[in-house]
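Lecture 7 notes: from sequence to structure.

We start with a single chain of 583 residues. Read the sequence below before looking at the structure.
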Amino acid sequence: MKKYIAYIGILALGLILGWLFFGGSSKDNHEHSDTMTAETNQMWTCSMHPQIMQSEPGDCPICGMDLIPAEVGAEGLAADQFKLSKNALALANIQTTVVGNSEANENRIKLTGKIQPNEEANTVQVSYFSGRIERLNVSFTGEEIRKGQLLATVYSPQLYAAQQELLTASSLKESQPELYKAVRNKLKLWKLSENQINQIEISGEVKENFPVYATVSGTVSKKLIEQGDVVKQGQPLLKITDLSTVWAQFDAYENQIDLFKVGQSIDISTNAFPNETYKAKISFIDPVINTRTRTISVRAVLQNNNDRFKPGMFIQGLVQGDSSNSKTVITVPKTAILWTGERSVVYLKMSKDQPVFEMREVTLGNISGDMQEIVEGLSDGDEVVTNGAFTVDAAAQLQGKKSMMNKDGEKTSSGHKDHPGMEESALNVTERIEVDSKFQDQLKTVFDAYIALKNELVEDDVKSTKSKATLILEQMGTVNMKLLSDNKAHTKWMTLEKEIKSASNEISKSNDIMVQRNHFKTLSTHLTKAVQLFGVNETVYSQYCPMADNNSGGYWLSLENEIRNPYFGDAMLKCGSVKQTIN
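Now the structure, written as tokens:
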């Protein structure tokens, strides 16, 4: 019996030991399987070229560096969506706005303008006879005068002689009534009243100094003479403006012309009285477009009770307008829209809590002040990027997603973006606009100044970089927009001109080379667009450094295929690659 008990004890001990050593093997196998699966799904990227994304380790196809494991956490994103780091989001100062809609019958077009004098009520007070201003009773511009008020006293030899003629003719009026009548009419033509003429005749005395009276009431808008001046007959003395009525003059964009009609109601407000609205009707629409601003003038007449409206005062107008055949109207700030060729795009923030973005093509409607109507492409409640859209677009390009310059966002089979294809797409999407060769020559002088600035950044020379930025501003002043007869070309250049000048101005003011390089990135983006659109009769290379701007990447233009990095200078002179050749 003891023998069997011993056997049973040994067997039980063996079972226990077996479970302890091998019982968790299935779990371990399962965990091992999960680990293998995770490793299989691991993507690999290049620290220098983050757009490279491959499913297995190896070398970067661009620079040859060893690939590193890519960060995980972007699971669940759609094919066209991409994510920015919180650090990049903060550095780029990316801001978003939630868009809403309004009923079409409440759609109102916002206009801006100024108060101007009513030209129909302007008068010029002239001298009706020659003489010298002995005394001027108008002291300053802006003085109020009344009809019949004494304006000046004039010594006039011409009038002195005419008075003597009157006295002589008066003594002969019985025998020569026609002569007497002609002399009196002559004085009347010089704006002497019947009473003045009768007083001369009754007194029998000739006046040396003669008064000049105001023929109208109003405000002196300009003094054209001073005391002691000699004036000729018909010479203007004063410009007098009647401000009892004024013009509300607005500028409307060319594409808004068909939205306005004479007699249309307009609500007008001012910065001086922000809580008051004045109703008026459109009285005039300029038949000629201002070729410099591509706008037309829309005018309304306002009654200026108590002189509330001052010429030069800024005003806003709201006009009831028709929307683009839509029941709802969605508007976004104009800064949210990126224009490229015939396409207009915005970037949507797809997650409330995460910096996930997606490009969306939109169809534009009417412009209302700083707001742009979106006819198609957005819905009520969408959150769009309104500041930093260019930075978001650059991130989309780096990650091989749909972007302003890459409509389809296609990838190669290895998982990374096919760079030659991207370059070709960028060149094809950005159409070339045919312009006058003189405009190209003027743009070339701007481009040459830019190249000089780029070379100074390569040399890490802050002072010379500032002077070259000033040179860009000077050359921009020589570019004649009147050479752009095409409306599309004019609009695009105005947008690019503003950004180029702004970035150049910031560079010219800074003594910090890092600040200069940050603005150089913006300058390069917009000048590249200008060169692509209009051409400079030169082969230009668009080059790119992925480590510029805190690894956000930065482009620049060069006349040489060789890389000389303006973002790092000698520290990383050869970092970068040619992304596009602009012929």
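The two ends are 103 Å apart (CA to CA). Keep this in mind for problem set 3.
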